[in-house]
Write a structure and sequence with these properties.
Mean pLDDT of chain B: 88
Oligomer: heterodimer
Low-confidence stretches of chain A: none
Distance between the termini of chain B: 22 Å
Helix content of chain B: over 70%
Distance between the termini of chain A: 17 Å
Structural class of chain B: mainly alpha
Shape of chain A: elongated
Largest interface: A-B, 31 and 26 residues
Radius of gyration of chain B: 19 Å
Shape of chain B: elongated
Number of domains of chain A: 1
Number of domains of chain B: 1
Strand content of chain B: under 5%
Mean pLDDT of chain A: 90
Chain lengths: 258, 255
């Protein structure tokens, strides 16, 4: 039996995942609806808080938009882990392991599919944010830098979830995939900048890598450069470490016998 | 009838107590939200016209409101499991009455609601919350909260009976938390800057429950807010229970 080459496996896995999305568009709902709801709810209810201090974005909608973007990216990444876990449960992944020469190509295929999927929530969120009055002061380069951070975050979340899915090979891993992402998101400066946080949440947020990504992303939107090196170090470092975690998960699944 | 209720209620209570996976989120998630919001939004107390200078007291409402909402998952999951496991089929062959089943299903979450209320008050006081209406106000708060627990517990049963699927219940239940954030939970309506959101919050029944619970914490007795809070909880309870009874009848005939 001939085995598939690296790029043919990547192409097949990515295309298959995108085809599933065309058949079941409802799969996009969690990654779209939750961030959109949170954007609307937090912008609508708490915008008066921007009077209590300096915010790096032109308005409070922009401040919440960057948080919602990170949320959408992280959830889209986690959904890739869900898809992987489901493929283990249905037995499809075992067959894929048998037919592919290099198993890391499978994870890369999922990553490409999730990157394509991730553009849809980003477009919807941007449309909603602009619709409710978001202003943008960042230049095109800063906007590219913002979406670059979001892309790295999506891939880091995907590799985290994929690593878990490869180790647990069951949908029971779903809660474990989402909970740390949820905690990282809400233990960051959600409503006010880091400098305005007080008490224990300030102490936790200082050590939370997502804080740097949020602060820098909000800075880009407002035309400022805030903690850019730290933000890219956190996002890029998370991407690399979790890519290794996912790769080792694939090796573990191979050893167990796929 | 009394014996039917007792037997099924005991089963519901034991089922709740034996399931730490169901108890922990109902205690931990509302407290996590309380801690995150009370710390993350504490700068709001500096906004001119904010109704209290103690944001921790203001934010304690979120623990109660979310604590009531998360019971949807408990009763919904329990009902769906009873359908999926065939327990409902076996029950349909007995002379059990529908209301006995529904009332008994709520016993577990009612007991859990008492534990939640005690924990939320203890943690809130330890974190620095100071209820303005005193001990009597806290008693009324707990009564309103328990009515809300029954209301959302009944709503969970309705979802469980309609879908018959634990997966569907788990998918629908978190959406309710989103509706909580589309109310005045984070900010009083008079301080919201966006008119469109004031409209959303005003149309959202959860706003009145939130404002009823919160009025007992941050202000002197506000009869209008308290009465509206009780009315919303009672209406949701009555509507969800009635619709659940109708769904149960259909479900028992179908099986």
């Amino acid at each position: 039996m001939s085995k598939g080459g690296y790029f043919s496996v990547v192409r097949y896995v990515a295309w298959r995942n995108l085809k599933v999305l065309f058949r079941k568009p409802e799969l996009l709902f969690p990654a779209i609806m939750l961030p959109v709801f949170f954007l609307i709810a937090f912008t609508g209810s708490t915008s008066a808080i921007d009077k209590v201090g300096e915010f790096s974005t032109p308005d409070y909608t922009g401040f919440q938009y960057v948080f919602a973007l990170c949320q959408a990216a992280a959830f889209t990444g986690a959904m890739g882990g869900f898809a992987l876990a489901e493929d283990w449960e249905t037995g499809f992944m075992r067959r894929l392991f048998v037919t592919s020469q290099n198993r890391s190509a499978i994870v890369v295929g999922y990553a490409i599919a999730m990157l394509v999927r991730g553009t849809i929530p980003v477009l919807v969120l941007t449309g909603v944010a602009v619709g409710i009055g978001m202003g943008v002061d960042g230049n095109p380069l800063q906007m590219v830098a913002l979406y670059g951070l979001v892309t790295l975050l999506l891939l880091a979340a995907l590799f985290w979830a994929a690593g878990l899915a490869m180790r647990m090979r069951s949908f029971a891993a779903a809660q474990a995939m989402v909970l740390p992402i949820f905690l990282l998101l809400f233990l960051a400066p959600v409503f006010v900048p880091l400098v305005l946080l007080k008490g224990w949440l300030h102490a936790v947020a200082v050590g939370n890598p997502l804080t740097r990504i949020l602060e820098s992303g909000r800075g880009f939107l407002g035309g400022h450069y805030i903690d850019v090196q730290w933000a890219y170090l956190c996002a890029g470092g998370g991407f690399l470490i979790l890519a290794i975690w996912a790769y080792l998960g694939t090796r573990k699944a191979e050893r167990i016998g796929g | 009838m009394g014996r039917q209720v007792w037997l099924l209620a005991r089963r519901s209570i034991l089922g709740t107590l034996r399931s730490p996976g169901a108890i922990l989120p109902t205690l931990a998630v509302p407290l996590l939200l309380f801690f995150v919001i009370s710390s993350g939004l504490s700068a709001a107390e500096k906004i001119k016209g904010f109704p209290t200078d103690n944001f921790t007291t203001f934010a304690l409402t979120i623990a109660f409101a979310n604590g009531a909402l998360v019971t949807i998952a408990n009763t919904g999951q329990a009902t769906a499991t009873d359908i999926e496991s065939g327990f409902m089929d076996r029950l349909s062959m007995t002379p059990m009455r529908g209301f006995a089943f529904l009332g008994a299903q709520l016993a577990g979450v009612f007991l859990l609601g008492i534990v939640q209320a005690g924990l939320f008050i203890a943690v809130g006081l330890a974190a620095g919350a100071r209820p303005e209406t005193g001990v009597l106000g806290v008693v009324v708060l707990v009564v309103m909260f328990l009515l809300a627990v029954l209301a959302f517990g009944a709503a969970g049963m309705l979802i469980g009976l309609r879908t018959g699927s634990g997966e569907a219940v788990q998918a629908i239940a978190p959406l309710m938390t989103v509706f909580l954030f589309l109310s005045s939970i984070n900010m009083p309506r008079n301080l919201m800057e966006h008119e469109w959101f004031v409209w959303i919050a005003t149309a959202n029944p959860l706003t009145y429950l939130v404002e009823g619970l919160r009025s007992l914490l941050i202000s002197d007795w506000n009869a209008q807010a308290v009465i509206l809070g009780f009315i919303v909880a009672a209406v949701i309870f009555a509507a969800a229970l009635t619709l659940s009874a109708m769904s149960l009848r259909t479900r028992l005939i179908r099986t």
